[in-house]
Design brief:
The structure is a homodimer of 380-residue chains. Chain A is 38% helix and 17% strand. With 380 residues, chain A is an alpha/beta fold. In chain A, strand 8 and strand 9 form a beta hairpin. The two termini of chain A are 13 Å apart.
Chain lengths: 380, 380
């Protein structure tokens, strides 16, 4: 049957910008500031407004996007001056990183730039949240992502399956992620196409898995090989590097993405972030979202179909509140999800993916997943 | 100079027990219970007492050990009966795993065993904490570790460096952890010598690193290759799989272990767990501890030596409380640590490893670590 939720997935044009293009953009911004100073004008820095008021769900693209509202910071405004200075420091430093082929974590750039100004007692930055905010401003000002500024957050996530990657920045190391024993490859915090090349990928789909323990289970059962699947363990909410990798497999390799989480608000949220992106990173969905991703479970229907009543957990107050909010999310405005959320709220139970072990350890690999994939029993 | 803290490190005899030996021990325990029933006696299960009252620091071995106090559970005691039944269930299930060459996470065994008993409304287990406690009882009863019962907790931690591993349970995959790009190998939750073989290891020492971001930094700087180091990123408190790997490198490969954490109570605790083991796992130090490990930093002296005053953080009340407690720990009863802890309490500051970025991104790799290792500037 035709899938009306399916959108045409493509590699973003912005994806193609090289480090030197990004460096040029930063330089352009800086030169603008210099020109304003030379003309004795008030230097300005323009970035985008964030938050709910400037976020929308783009149905055609199938992901969350940032609106058009911009915001201007003036150096000669006592409320803006400190932040203006901080932004210039972050700009200059990331420009250095790009020129020197260095990358840094967002904690490192904070520490590199933090110092006491001249003979004052004033610090350039008091907390990492200040430099983090400047990084976000800069991402929006140059219309790209921090990874392309050679910045990154902490890594998390694991890869397993018949995919061969090449790291151009590390002796052109070329390795297959199905041949690293049962441990798998530790996904880097930053894996831009210029640096990490997908050499080949012999898989039918990507299975994104919430818990590392379930990821290990599926490896032990030989699931990836038998079903030609790429397995990606997120260990909870997916880190940016992991989201970039799933996105690249979805857009570059055109692989279907199935997301396998616990049946609870946290699991649904993990899924929706993989699929549609997040409010906080609305401007970057083009680099991160997988609009055709499907939710493979757990569901309340599974509880009945597979007799898991004994191994459900009670929803806590926080879960119930979250689930109620989710009923209103634009991307859950379809019958299957409305049913799922209402059923969960009605029965007030949640079901973990590891609860499938109640049937037997290999049940998830031998029956649950193959059957659901074969019969396309997904939530959209 | 002779290091009076140095102890002779050896591979434990208990390390050599094979899965069939462990299965035999479990069977022995079960047969004992059957005998007692046949003789119309009250069936008993003997395990070790845990907690502070039965934990001591063994100076000769250089790690924390469990004392001799045992505890007996009787089936015909209303307060013990439920736990007795649960323990028998866990015993039988892990015996199955060993026979079938299966492994399971401690969450999976909980779900496998959880069900409603007969026509009652009584569940075998209500919470994972119940089955976890049975697993600990069983470990002590057979005098081994859960990994040898084919059980494991969640994985966490990353490996990088010139070490070649072979996974005998996965097509004999053989791979070198310096040739996986900058991502490194994702350390499994369970890596027993029978399954994961250290084929070769061309390194001078192991550097255990608290944050994954610092781990990435050292890879980017080419530190491991230049200094023949194995890098292990723990991502906070080290998981059991990671501790097993560090322990194996320390005992099997006789490599020195240097631990690089933040200079604060959490970092010191990470170090002391790697080195001496932990109270909670006192019985398993022989499988986990690295008694000759050294603490390479961060220290308060570093703050002065490397002019990091601007990038220290204030200690919180919880940090101060923790540091005061640590003053009394047996393994910190030496002058260098007493000085360090007192200095921290005096100045009430903490220093993160990433704060070294204040000097420059490559400072840690080019100057800080090489200088400290060359001059043996360690805490014991």
């Amino acid at each position: 049957m035709a899938d009306k939720n399916k959108v045409k997935v493509r590699v973003s044009e912005r994806e193609k910008e090289k480090p030197k293009d990004i460096a040029k953009k930063i330089k352009g911004l800086a030169e603008g500031v210099v020109q304003e100073i030379k003309k004795h004008k008030d230097p300005t820095f323009i970035t985008m407004q964030r938050g709910k008021g400037n976020v929308e769900f783009d149905e055609a693209q199938g992901f969350i996007v940032l609106g058009e509202k911009s915001t201007t910071r003036n150096f000669l405004n006592i409320g803006h001056a400190r932040k203006f200075m901080q932004t210039m420091m972050v700009m200059a430093k990331s420009h250095n990183y790009l020129n020197e082929n260095k990358t840094a974590s967002i904690r490192e750039i904070y520490y590199e730039l933090k110092h006491t100004l001249g003979t004052t007692k004033e610090n350039t930055f008091e907390e990492q949240s200040e430099s983090d905010a400047c990084i976000v401003d800069l991402e929006h000002a140059i219309d790209s992502i921090r990874e392309k500024l050679n910045l990154h957050a902490n890594p998390k996530g694991t890869l397993y399956g018949d995919i061969t990657l090449k790291d151009r920045m590390h002796n052109n190391d070329t390795f297959n992620a199905a041949k690293l024993g049962r441990g798998g490859w530790s996904i880097m915090s930053r894996l831009e196409p210029d640096e990490i090349e997908i050499v080949s990928c012999k898989a039918d789909y990507v299975l994104v898995i919430e818990t590392e323990a379930m990821f290990e289970r599926l490896i032990e059962e030989g699931f990836a090989k038998k079903h030609k699947a790429i397995l990606i363990g997120t260990g909870g909410q997916a880190a940016r590097g992991t989201r970039r990798l799933v996105h690249r497999l979805h857009t570059e390799e055109k692989l279907p993405v199935y997301v396998f989480t616990d049946g609870d608000p946290y699991g649904w949220y993990i899924y929706s972030v993989i699929k549609q992106g997040s409010m906080a990173l609305a401007a970057h969905s083009e680099f991160l979202a997988c609009p055709n991703a499907k939710y493979i479970g757990m569901t309340l229907e599974d509880v009945d179909d597979y007799k898991l009543q004994d191994v459900t957990e009670k929803m806590k107050d926080g879960d119930i509140k979250r689930a109620k909010e989710m009923l209103d999310y634009p991307w859950f405005q379809n019958k299957p999800w409305q049913n799922e959320l209402k059923m969960a709220l009605d029965r007030k139970i949640r079901i973990e993916q590891q609860a499938l072990a109640h049937r037997s350890l290999d049940f998830v690999a031998k029956e649950y997943l193959p059957k659901k994939i074969k019969n396309e029993v997904f939530l959209p």
